[in-house]
Every structure is written in C-alpha cells, then in structure tokens.
Write a structure and sequence with these properties.
The chain is an alpha/beta fold and 142 residues long. The protein has a single domain, classed as YqgF/RNase H-like domain (Nucleotidyltransferase, domain 5), CATH 3.30.420.140. The protein is built from 5 helices and 5 strands. α3 (95-102) packs across α4 (110-126).
Amino acid sequence: MKILAIDYGTKNIGLALSDDRGKLAFAYRTLINNKIIFSNLKKICEIENIKKIIIGLPIGLSGKNTQTTELALDFIKKLKQELNISVQTVDERLSTVQAGYLESKNKKNINELSAQILLQDYLDKLYKPINLFQTCGFTSLD
C-alpha cells in the first residue's frame, strides 16, 4: 500500500512517498501552500496511486495545541473533503529539527525531508517486528 506523508507548513508543504510495499519512505517534493494545493495533492495521489495519507500535526513541545496546530487542523479538514483517501495524523514534534540536522547545508529540501522522517517513523512503528520469544512468555534462555 503506497502512502503519502505531508509535512504541513503555512508557506511550504513537504511530501514523502512510501514504496509500493509500504516499508520505505522517500522524500518526494515540496509544494507551495497556495490556492491550488488541494488540486496538486489530488493529482499526485492519482498519479502515484496513493491509498493513505499521513500528516504531521504540529503540536507544541508542551503537548498543547498552538496556532499552527489549528491551521493544520483546518488544512486536514479541507484535505479530507477534497480527497477521498484515508487521512491519519501523527505527532510531528521535532521532525523538522531532525531534518535540519540532516540537511544543515541545504535548507531547500527540509520540508520533504521532514515528511520522509515522519513517514519512515510511521512505517517503522507499523511494521515493528514481533518478538515471538517474549510473546510466548519466555523471559530468558536459562
């Protein structure tokens, strides 16, 4: 299942895509957040055969909503109305900071890199391997 990740910003929106198996995330592109953003996202979803969208919710470090959180929630509401695709929010705290460390020399790609970090973190949690040893009740090999 192919997934699109969105790193929401009031000026730019970073995008990342998973592979067809939904295991690996790849930075895709950065779009300008303007009047045609939903039209552009719809085209991308059709071209790339997207089955699910995850979007980072910019919650404050305190865990409380901020002004940007409210703007993102409005964006998510419109996204759900415009696209007939499952949309799930994920906590994006510190993803932009992580992306900044990785992309410190070139700020141009920071939005799509943030989306890639969000998506890979999501995929890793989704496909976290089960420890059968512990699941069966064993605590040690002794």
